[in-house]
Design a protein that fits this description.
Chain lengths: 140, 140
Amino acid sequence: MQPAIHVITLGVADLERSLSFYRALGLKSPGVIGTEFPGGAAAMFELQNGLILALYGRADLASDANTTFEAPGSGEFSIGHLVGSRDEVDGVLAEATAAGATLTEEPHDRPWGIYSGYFRDPDGHLWEVIWNPRLDSTST
Amino acid sequence: MQPAIHVITLGVADLERSLSFYRALGLKSPGVIGTEFPGGAAAMFELQNGLILALYGRADLASDANTTFEAPGSGEFSIGHLVGSRDEVDGVLAEATAAGATLTEEPHDRPWGIYSGYFRDPDGHLWEVIWNPRLDSTST
């Protein structure tokens, strides 16, 4: 396997709701596509370097992968988003909360040298917003 | 928020087991780091374009995010990995199965024009291995 990830697909309860949420955070998407295929409706955001963030109905994802999401131990993860300053961490978390996310805690300094906080999106997916002072540039 | 994801962190039951699994798939990691910090042990793989795949103890991730993973609706997702041919899809799936993954189904053509199959890693995280004939090059 090549050291590459091209798409991150989040299972969601309501495509339009999740699309609105991520658009409110500033991500751009042409909207829901694939409705001509049973189980094909999805929405995609092109991120940096061609990485794709996809939203896909949870039941469709389970069906597409021929699995269920009740399986124990499946799925715990988080997505890391780097910004350039402490203030930007606070800003993105405020923006997410305003868009309907739940802050799981206030941002703070962590012993390994970063400043970060987490939010859950409307489907419970965890995002960590991080400032790492050891990185010279976090722009994309 | 900038359209960027920098880190994908998978919550795992056993860092060493998961490290071995992903190394068996060909990913390179300097090994477990951060053991000097309580709750800091993790392993990281640098992927294409600086994207990081991180492995982190499930309990540590829950604690770091100040949340629990029993929350309904959290976490269903999949990671997409593009390859250059139908045979490569079969090959990566075989490689993953040999390394201890569970194939959730045999790969097949999907109505939206791709050929793909899914596996679950030892912690249940879903990977979809995809050949998309409409893409000229999927090398990184």
